[in-house]
Design goal:
single chain; six-stranded antiparallel beta sheet
Length: 232
């Protein structure tokens, strides 16, 4: 049990989040957080997103371990890990689910898969920004994942990814979105990928879950030091 099981910085959330994300007691029992855990050599890294179930939780740790393993099958594919550097390993996935009272249940998958592109990776604090679109109409009204471990070969310039990299990754990410949304765990009914908004146009609100309609890769190369854990 983590003291801040839903802390996520800016990964997979809306504009101007508080430093540790929504208060645990505000998160309903139909909502959980997915942490995709990576290693770049010896350096830990992570990115993540939110899920909503059709029926209230909480599930068991075993239920969440099974869900994490199913999520892995849609991430560890040629369209996603196949464009990542072989210096990057998708170590495992952790799913944290709210009980609606401020506590959480956690489950993890077993070690995952390495990237497939040989050659040097970009510096460990260099990330691809994955935008999760949910129909919000204010500036910044979409979640973001900051995914490190991309190969030097994916860069078209010092500031942008190549069109081939973006096109391939976009297709892989939307297959991932479709695949995860099609999961039907017995405890959940259905699962939906999205973002949990704690702010609306700069004003704090009760957390609102919004489904993601698509996930796209920004052409700009980003550095996001906070995504890489306390050792950086």
């Amino acid at each position: 049990m983590s003291s801040q099981p839903f802390a996520q910085g800016r990964s997979g959330e809306g504009r101007r989040p508080p430093p540790t994300g929504p208060r645990p007691e505000d998160i309903p029992s139909t909502v959980g957080r997915v942490h995709l855990m990576f290693a770049i050599g010896a350096l830990p890294a992570s990115c993540g997103f939110w899920l909503q179930s059709a029926t209230p939780g909480p599930p068991t740790s075993g239920d969440l371990a099974d869900l994490a393993a199913n999520i892995d099958t849609f991430w560890d594919v040629p369209g996603i890990m196949g464009v990542a550097s072989d210096s990057l390993t998708h170590d495992h996935t952790k799913v944290v689910w709210s009980d609606g009272l401020g506590a959480a249940v956690e489950g993890e998958s077993t070690p995952g898969a390495p990237g497939l592109i040989a050659g040097d990776a970009m510096p460990a604090n260099t990330c691809a920004v994955l935008s999760m679109h949910d129909g919000s109409h204010y500036r910044g009204g979409k979640g973001r994942m900051y995914w490190p471990g991309q190969p030097n070969a994916a860069a078209a310039s010092v500031s942008s990814w190549s069109n081939d990299f973006v096109t391939t990754l976009d297709a892989g990410l939307n297959d991932f979105l479709i695949g995860v949304n099609a999961l039907t765990p017995a405890w959940a009914g259905t699962i939906t990928v999205g973002t949990l908004h704690r702010w609306l146009a700069g004003v704090a609100i009760t957390p609102v879950f919004r489904p993601s309609s698509s996930i796209t890769t920004q052409h700009r190369i980003c550095t996001q030091r906070r995504r890489l854990g306390p050792t950086i």
